[in-house]
């Protein structure tokens, strides 16, 4: 039985997550962590990028075709990495090799189940480990079957975080699915993760997506997405999960 939730006076942090390329050799999941007092500012900035470009639909990696939207998508990606560089947000990414991976530990398991497991590892060893002692954490995930299980695992995750990382009790206050069309930060996550997955899977796009993936890597300041960030990294972390172990 968990002890009472942490005091309400603790500052809040929201994590906006998504997953990309679960049908490919490498799956990429992750998202942006944003302090509660900055959420409106970030949402307004993303909306302004969309409005300035005259885009009525949501930003979405799978729908990107270049053309007159190229500048807006590049501005969105640039804005995301500017948030990281100015320490106004953090990006936490987990990459798992899904080729040859056993997605059926038990009846009914599939690739969506595996994505849920990857989310668990990311939330436990990044969100809880980094923020669970001093923040109330809210997790918002792009709705779909690949987050259905994890949205029901808050109690288990909090107990695990308390035991492994000495977090505040119930450090993760909520895990909920949201519709990406209503949340600009989820759209930002979708585009950035799509770009990372494209590079990691060595996708030879004949469409403008190749250029956008190259742009994202360039503005990130990294040479590739194929290696883990240093253990000391906090605002941009990349973790290649190499086994089913619960330890990074």
TrEMBL record:
It comes from the Bacteria. Pfam families: DUF3800. This is DUF3800 domain-containing protein. The lineage of its organism: Bacteria, Pseudomonadati, Pseudomonadota, Alphaproteobacteria, Hyphomicrobiales.
